[in-house]
Amino acid sequence: MAGVLSFSSCISTKKTTYLQGKDREMDSIIQIQQLKKPYRIQTGDLLSIRVKALDQELVGMFNPVGEADNNATTEERVYFDGFTVDDHGNIRVPTLGEVNVLGYTEREIREKIENLLLENYFREEANLFVTVKLAGIRYTTLGEIGTGSQVIYKEKVTIMEAVANAGGISEYGDMENVKIIRQYPYGEEVHKIDLTDIDATQSEYYYIQPNDLILVNALPQKALGLGTTGLEIFRTGVTILSFVTTTILLFSRI
């Protein structure tokens, strides 16, 4: 009985090992899928916008300084000083008012703000320098992985970095069928990626996007509750077998 349980319930190391090369030679060059298109801003995104010029006093109003709390964390400062894209795709910029950024790239927003400032408030001689960035890559993890809202302050984040930042996938997590629920202007789509295969680095979903939900479901072995290794399952099987044998002996004496 223990042998049957061990055979049917043991979790193979192939299911719990990241980015296996299979037939690939060690130290070979790995081609990593790069982002094909720049990310386009969606509602709910948080932007960091800074304006610089030869005379910094002239652009001071465009640069929040986080006066609310000097002891605020980086996350809190970004939240209060950043520009949130509202449900209509707009951000509120000092003096400029409502600026629509829905569907724009970071570069397109930068150019738009520069043009608006030069048209209405500054001359070319001011040497304006505008930077526009997403205030971190924010995503959510759920299931057999550290659960909650996560943020990484980088311009590009791979799913491996996202998983590591969340604490990794548990021994019961189905690494072969990791789901990425991604938001699009027309709704949501569910994509899958196999993190046990080195070819995951060539997937178009290898890089996560803001507002992604990473879902890792449990393997069937978790529902059985017998353990993950052959030794654990064998011990569980022996315990069950001993219990059944003892019960039969007790009833046979009645």
Would you kindly provide a written description of the structure presented here, covering whatever features stand out?
With 254 residues, this protein is α+β, with helices and mostly antiparallel strands. The chain folds into two domains: 2-16 and 136-222, Outer membrane lipoprotein wza fold like, CATH 3.10.560.10; 46-134, wza like fold, CATH 3.30.1950. The protein has six helices and ten strands. It has helices at 2-9, 74-81, 106-120, 159-165, 220-224, 230-253, and strands spanning 46-52, 83-84, 90-93, 97-100, 129-134, 137-143, 148-152, 178-184, 187-193, 213-216. Strands 7-6-10-8-9 form a five-stranded mixed beta sheet, with helices on one face. The protein has a three-stranded antiparallel beta sheet with strand order 2-1-5, sandwiched between helices. β8 and β9 (187-193) form a beta hairpin. α1 (2-9) packs antiparallel against α6. The longest helix is centred in the C-terminal third of the chain and has 24 residues, at 230-253. It is found in: Cell outer membrane. Residues 143-216 form the SLBB domain. InterPro entries: Poly_export, Poly_export_N, SLBB_dom.
